[in-house]
Each structure stands twice: as structure tokens, then as C-alpha cells.
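Case study B.
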Amino acid sequence: MIKARVIVTLKNGVLDPQGKAIEGALRGLSFSGIGSVRQGKVFDLELDGSDKAKAETDLKEMCERLLANTVIENYSISIT
Amino acid sequence: MKSAVIQLPGLNRDRDMIAALTKISGKAPIKVWQTDTELPEVDLIVLPGGFSYGDYLRCGAIAARMPVMRAVAERAAKGVLVIGVCNGFQILLEAGLLPGALMRNASLKFVCREVKLQVANANTAFTRAYAPGQIIRCPVAHHDGNFFADPETLARIEGDGQVVFRYAEGTNPNGSINDIAGIVNQAGNVLGLMPHPENLIEAAHGGIDGRALFESVLGRAA
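Model:
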């Protein structure tokens, strides 16, 4: 079995009001020195088989077709 | 006019849309379930509002991948008129039938109120019964209506007259770029908008400003 993690984040320049609200809340907790906060999503997947190259290809297609909206989001894939 | 309303789990404005279409066209729309792969022969396909699949992943993301959406895309490519309202707009964007994306409202709050809309393009199949630049009233109810497009896409849709409705008179409820409330595709036969014209079609609603949208379509399909 292959385990993979997909991280989806908003592209640079795309407004992230949730990140801004989290940033404000962290400052409210008296954490200092916070430049900025951007939030995103993490997907942990378990895939059958052991072919990592195939898994990589499949994961990329999953990201393009569903997990990320590439109009506004970037994704990164890591296989462990 | 023959119409179809797409139904998906979590949509809740389908009944309002069915009532509006029935009252205005005199004919009840055909209801089509998400797993149907064939659509009836109709002049208009409507994706109503709601919270399909609980807004999981992203609003409209899962609905956009249901079998019926392939059939909707095929019909759209043939020039059949398609309207997506609210969650329906989000679904059309996620399905790639319209450009851009809808993000969380800039205020982070769900907004449920009346806004003013300017008819930015009255030369479409959906707006010809309005006057150019006309200001109309329309209700909105959404959490993710903040329209976004990258600069090139934005320039293209603005240049091609694809922006059909804008929030007017400082009523932008969600931070949408250029006050965009509704857009059409390049061919002009697919409309997506966040406001709910189906909820302002008779005196009992307190106004009828939404009616002309459906009458525009009716005029073409009659």
C-alpha cells in the first residue's frame, strides 16, 4: 500500500479571508511577529499497490480533476 | 418553453425554481436526478441553489462531477440555455462551463438580504427583457459568492460583455471582484448568478424584478 499526502493551498494573489481571520485571532492570543497566515487543505490517501510512478500520475489527475480547483488553488503531492 | 431542473442531494431551492418556472412558462419543468445520464429535450436547463453535498470539499465541487453534469455540458455545447443560480452557479464554475471561481465571502459571513443589481449586459438570451443598465432588486443568500478570476480571464470576460449582472449602489455583499454578480459563457448560452431571481417573481414576493430574466428566456424559446 502506498500512503500519500496532498496539500492544497490558495495561489498567491488570491484573497484568503479565512487566513486573514486566523491571523487576526493569533494576534488576539498575543502571539507576536506573525507576518501572515494562509490556510489550506490536507488530504491523506491510501492507495492499493506499490507502483509509486503510477500513484504519482493518478494523484496528479485526482488533484486536477477534483481535489484542487486550479483556478484558485495550487497542490503538492508527497508519497511516503 | 420546456425546461428541466437538475436535482442533487443538498439542494434546497429547487422547489422555488420549479414554482417560478411553472408560473412564468405555464409548464412544469421536468425534474432530472443527478445520476441521470440523459436529459429530456428542453429549451432551458436550470441548476438551482442550495448546498449540494453539504458544500464538502468546495461549494459545487462534488455536484459538478456527477453523471448528469456531463449531459448538461453536452447540451450547453449544442447551445441549449443553462442557468445556474447560487449553488448552481458554483456548480457551473466547478464543471468548467463558466470561467472563474466563487470564494468565501470577504466578510466571512453568510449573507441573506436584498441587493441591487445593475443589468450590465441586456443583450443576452437571459436579459433582453431588461433595459440596458437597469437597476433591479434581488435577494441573495450565500456564504461563498465572492467571484474571483485571474487578471487575464477578468479582462477577457469584461471585454467580451460576459459580465451580465453587477451589484449596484454599494450593495456588493461578498467582495466580488468588479462587483460581479452574474456572468455568461463566451457563447452566451450559459448564465451563472449568485442572486435569486426566482424569489422575486410575483406580488406576494414583494416585487417582480426577477421575472424578466425568465421572460427573456421564454421569448426566445416560445
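Chain B has a mean pLDDT of 96. The remaining cases will be described in the next quarterly update.
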